[in-house]
Sequence to fold (124 residues):
Amino acid sequence: KVVHFEVPFEDEKRATNFYKKVFDWKINPIPEMNYNIVHTVEVDEKQMPKSFGAINGGMFKRSELLNNPIIVIDVKNIEETIEKIKELGGEILRPKTPVGEMGFVAYFKDTEDNIIGLWETVKR
Fold:
């Protein structure tokens, strides 16, 4: 399922101010990760959306590779999913990468040149 979105920016202050004012999003910078966590709705103690069907996201400095909004899809096994993507003609742009102790992220280009993110939560 789609569990996250990401919005790249050129100017962090300008972009976060825009989304805060237009949509009343809560945006929390994480400087050590060069990332901003975006809460689109109220969250619980685990930082998960309280509203059914809602997702939260993130914002980061635009790069040559990641330069458009991205949806992120939750998968059970990111390595198996990467293999399926390659078998079916997709291209891995960023391999499985740890995100703190929370999980793993990867990015791929589908057969239509769309960039999509993958997420696997660390099992505790």
Observations:
- The chain has a mean pLDDT of 94.
